[in-house]
Amino acid sequence: MTLNRQTFEIRHRRGSAAFRRLLAGSALAAAVAASSAVSAQEAAEGGEGDAIVVSGYRYLSEDTSGTTGLPVAIEDVPQSISLVSEDFLDATDARTLGDVAQYTPGALFDGNPGGTSSIVKLRGFAAGNAIDGLNVGTLDYEPDFATLERLEIVKGPTSVVYGAANPGGIINQVTKGANAGTRSHVELLGGSWGRWRIEGQLARALNAAGTVHAIGIAVHEEGDSFMQRVNSAKTVLYAGLDADLSPDLKAYLHGGYERYRRTSFDGIPTFPDGSPAPVGRSFFLGSGDFELVTPVARVNGGLDWEASDALSFSLKANYLRSNTTGESGFGFGLEPNGDFFLAVNNITKSVTEAFSAGLSSVYKLDDLGLADSFITVAANYQHYDTKQAGTIPDMPQGDVANIFDGVDAIEALFNTRTYPGIFDYSLNRRLRYFTLSSQASIKVAEPLTLLGGISWAKPDVSKQSGTGPWQDFSGDSQTSLRLAATLEPVRGLNLYASYSESFQPQLFIDAVGDVLAPLSGEQYEIGVKYVSPDRRLLLTGAIFDVRQANQARYDQTIDLIDRYVAVGEVRHRGLELQAVGEIAQGWQVNAGLAILDPTIRKDDDPTLIGKTVTFLPKSTASLHTSYEFGNAFIGGGVRYVDSVKTDIDRATRDLPSYVLADVSAGYDFDRFRVQLNVKNIFDKHYFVNNYQTLFYGNVVGEPRSVTVSLRAGF
Prior knowledge:
The protein is built from 8 helices and 35 strands. The protein has 714 residues and is mostly beta strands. The protein has one domain (4-713): TonB-dependent receptor, beta-barrel domain (Maltoporin, Chain A, Beta Barrel), CATH 2.40.170.20. The radius of gyration is 25 Å and the shape is globular.
């Protein structure tokens, strides 16, 4: 296991027991529901607020200004945005950001290095991560969706909002708050490979006036895996306060603690030509005694003040800290006779600490005779630190195994590791920057709106190896621009064209230990959006051309640290289409198509120019649809990922394309809901690559799985 394989991107048997736990726990759910003051009749008369909503059309009216910096409706934002509602996450039993990506056009699940967290790419570039509109860098854990209200996936550069941001876009997690309509519930779930989960949510008003609401969430989940020796567990505690301090002043404070434990697994090496090893899907390479543990603490809060009808202010702050420790075994260099190298990484520290704060204001220009026009001004500060340390232990029985010897023999070799090790490492990296930005949206005439934005960011990038001195790689300050024009020929239909720039300091290092130069790029986008008059259906389409310099590409591994080289310039052209919402009474849909042409345009190596960028599928598609009748729904989904090129010159085999199909069904009775989900119903055998290289091999995708859940609302 290499250092940044823990932190950075380019980073079965007890099913019956789970069912017994589910049935035993149902008595608890019934007791909690029975004790509620809300009667079954009141729940039945709850109207649309209690209906089963799978695609989440209600979220089409949500405010996305926290992510875009633009206080306008989603159809008026001249940028492609996908909203993922809590309803959709529940209905599909989505557990990871990778699951979400497979149902989002323009998004790509790019593996889960070391089992720490999903890597998601947007338009072929690594996605940024934000919480409540503030950048938090790279995540080392999978956020539990019980704590989130929705996900906002913004595609394309966002540097005018964040100063430094990845060119592909950003995934914003909107944390769950409470209001008068927030319901309480208890849910029990059981599923394949001994998976079981219990989740509880309690929301209440804290004062008679109903101006202060609190929410508390607790989750515990455990399970084995389709793979031998692999299991996991997580515990989540979350709380939030939301208050209307006055008619013009609102505040929130959300935070929690999460602890993730999982057996370390990092893929099966491939043969030199890229062919998979001839082993079953349950084959495990590692040790069942090797566990990674990640505690996560986070807190975020904010104030929103409507100073007048024309002027408003917003103050927000986030803090997040995670630390992964434990042993991780991995293999590489599989030869035709079955021999391969194995190694162990004892991670004594892998800390990610992020703090960000932002102050922004909006001034509406209606009083100046410019209706539906405004100016925004914002200041943001972020620091993002990583501290990594560990030991590569000695393996007295040798560091070569044979894959044909089987799981037990390979595990026995891993377990021969001894301490002290043969190599200790330590690497600290720090990224800090301050950003000033402004955007102006002017409605020139009734159908035409012009948008202009600019940001200035000053980065501070430094690195420390071992006990050596800190090295400064900060570079110059950076200015980013955004220009757009939107035409609304008829109500609800918007045609737009935009130009935007991106800037992102990097923490990847090259063969001599220097940090790569910052990413810089520009994007041209033309798009169309249509929202139905009842706001139940949103149609979007976009054509884009993104050009980025200094894209990191895996080069080699030195002293167990992955090293990278910067590609001169890549160009990603593509098309994205999405339809989300209700297309007829009770019939909901979430459909998407993305086509991508990623090409190397400039590089010091002339043989690379014109070649297709590796490990990116050229097309992906998804469809999830459901039909509601009475108190029930039935739904299904299909996810398609094109084949993936694994070498510039096709010296190694492509990863095959795959199609996955899912089905779900649910029924509401009184305050209860029972739901069935079956994923990968045809049991498709497929592979996912974790590191954009075959050096460490591939991971087998999850086979068919089943879950049954029972929720009691009160």
